[in-house]
Amino acid sequence: MSDEILYAIAFTMLPGFNERQRKNMLEHYGSGLSIYKQREKKNYAFTNLNLVQKNILLGPWPLKEAGSELNFMVKHNIKCITLKDNLYPNRLLHCDDAPSLLYLKGNENFNLPYLISVVGTRQHTVQVNRIIKELMEGLSHLNIGIISGMALGVDAIAHQTALTYKIPTWGVLAHGLDQIYPLEHRKLAIDIMHNGGLITESRKESIILPYCFPKRNRIVAGMSDATIVVETAIKGGSMITANLAFDYNREVFAVPGKIHDSKSKGCLALIKRNKAHLYHDAENLLETLDWPIAEKNSPLKEQAFAFLPEIKTVLAHIEAHGPIHRELIAKELKINASKLSNLLLNLEMKGEIQLLAGNRYAVR
Fold first, then answer.
1. Same domain, 19 and 64
2. Are residues 119 and 268 part of one domain?
3. Is residue 341 very low, low, confident or very high in pLDDT (cuts 50, 70, 90)?
4. What is the tens place of the pLDDT at every residue in 72-113?
């Protein structure tokens, strides 16, 4: 396994490939080690790539640097999760630009039945604490996890409030696990690792550059069933996350605010452009997502999908016609992309179906 991880890390260090290309290669060859072994074919290897990329793969690999990273992981009890690993975030796997590997410190059980991301501005108003408190309270009956970006402001409040309600939460970092940014979140990071974890695609000693944060945001959006934007200006990281979630066919919710408040303009724009549902309260969110609502004084234990007839229809269709592409399932069964994604994820988590290369599904 250490060889698999070593070559997986080395593969991510090679220049000349974007995440979509890396993901496609891993889907085709299976692993970084398998890609490395293709070098033995020399002139017959990587014929589908351009000359520059082929020469990069046939040239020397940064195995020494990858070994240093692996030693750091072992020393600090950090897990490395590849695209082919069963622990890889199953929702993120559906994104075409998913990271080819993730580093994790903490609890790896983030493939829960329900996951949401909560994002927003660093300079928030006083109402944010109440909004997030009521949200966590309204979701605490579910087997749910909270994803955010460990930033100041809304992110930190979301993580901390989730911990208060004993809801597992994962912070996605824009840097390696050898540092915490911002520094004042060191205690929060330690608390999160006790009931969740820290996730990043960045290696140790990574320099924090502006482009690292949008890359981080795609993981926040991709890991979740839905993204809730609490407060944001018309531009910024939260808007990037919301737009990525929308592009991934995930549900987006935005908390409305005063029309002249700069911290609400982003949320209002998302609602106006029909990219986000208007967020009113937790019950409204649960109804929109078809998730179970807790009965008063009697927390609901059943999972929502257990009662949806569509899930049986989708399973039967895959059994009869699989392997079948997700778009063909949506077309033939006339199910919208967002709902189908949730149904397929639920079937995957139950072990009923498996995702094959090319977004095709088959029964196990």
1. yes
2. yes
3. confident
4. 999 999 999 999 898 999 999 999 999 999 999 999 988 999
- Domain span at 114: 105-289
Residue 192 burial (C-beta neighbours within 10 Å; 0-12, 13-18, 19+): buried
CB 303 within 8 A of CB 272: no
Q: How confident is the model at residue 296 (pLDDT cuts 50, 70, 90)?
A: low
Domain contains 99: no
Average pLDDT of the segment spanning 222-228: 97
For residue 291, give the 3-state DSSP assignment: coil
Beta bridge partners of 169: 146, 196
Query: Residue 228 CB: number of other CB atoms within 10 A?
Result: 30
Mean pLDDT, the chain, rounded, equals: 90
Question: Do residues 27 and 174 share a domain?
Answer: no
The answer to whether the beta carbons of residues 8 and 80 sit under 8 Å apart is yes
Pick the more confident residue, 308 or 162.
162
The helix (H) or strand (E) run that includes residue 51 is: helix 51-58
Closest to 206 (Cα-Cα) out of 103, 71, 106, 87: 103
Token pair in block for residue 62: 């940064």
Cα dihedral 272, 273, 274, 279 sign: negative
Question: Judging by beta carbons within 10 Å of its beta carbon (0-12, 13-18, 19+), is residue 301 exposed, middle or buried?
Answer: exposed
Which CA distances in Å does 334 have to 132, 299, 337, 346? Answer: 35, 33, 9, 18
Domain count, the chain: 3
Residue 213, in any domain of the structure: yes
Q: Are 160 and 189 in contact (CB under 8 A)?
A: no
Select from 259, 289, 319 the last residue of a domain.
289
Residue 111 Cα to chain centre, angstroms: 10
Q: What is the pLDDT of residues 66-76, one digit of tens each?
A: 999 999 999 99
Output the pTM of the full model.
0.79
- Judge if 260 and 213 occupy the same domain: yes
